[in-house]
Design goal:
Elements lengths: L1 E5 L2 E8 L2 E8 L5 E3 L8 E8 L3 E8 L4 E8 L4 E7 L5 E10 L2 E9 L6 E9 L9 E4 L16 E10 L2 E9 L5
Antiparallel strand pairs: 1-2, 2-3, 3-4, 5-6, 6-7, 7-8, 9-10, 10-11, 11-12, 13-14
Length: about 180
């Protein structure tokens, strides 16, 4: 569950009956609005970002590892719909971060449908956004700290990045496991 408050509006993003939903509650008139465009059983809610004019929702299409980014006006009107597909990469996590007046998409990816992280990505979301502009970085440097007998990357739990004063901070917890 993600909860944000902007002016008189409260945004609640969650899952209901295995479907991602965003509910907008206006504290002045007491009315609720449920966004109709998100009701997709094969998607997982990843991130909600809000400001005074817009809010952005990031969903992951299950089974394919694709991202769906939807930008709305604060009254719930869909303004932009971006799908990010990568044949060789599966998106695991994603977060929208406002940084120095720019909107960034940051997250982790793997090869195929697995929990073993391959690396992280970052992209600038603007009017000229293209999936070709997304930069990918591998976690090869983790090979030095992993088990020497291990021939593949360890499993990982990703703590989503946060904006800090002079940059972006993110962390990954690595572990060896036999997941069946």
């Amino acid at each position: 569950i993600t909860f944000r408050v902007v002016n008189q509006d409260c945004f609640l993003a969650c899952t209901y009956k295995e479907k991602p939903i965003v509910i907008i509650f206006n504290s002045i008139d007491g009315k609720f609005k449920v966004l109709p465009n998100l009701l997709n059983r094969n998607a997982k809610f990843l991130s909600l970002n809000t400001d005074n004019q817009y809010f952005t929702v990031v969903l992951k299409k299950m089974g394919k590892g694709e991202l769906l980014i939807q930008k709305y006006s604060n009254d719930g009107k869909l303004l932009k719909n971006i799908e990010i597909r990568e044949e060789k990469r599966h998106f695991n996590e994603a977060k929208i971060i406002d940084f120095n007046g720019k909107t960034l998409l940051v997250g982790t990816y793997s090869k195929g449908l697995q929990y073993r992280l391959e690396g992280f990505y970052i992209g600038l979301i603007d009017e000229n956004f293209s999936t070709k502009k997304v930069q990918y970085h591998t976690f090869e440097s983790f090979a030095e700290i992993s088990n020497k007998n291990q021939k593949i990357m360890p499993y990982a739990i990703t703590n989503l990045p946060k904006k800090i004063e002079n940059g972006i901070l993110g962390s990954v917890e690595l572990f060896d496991a036999n997941i069946v």
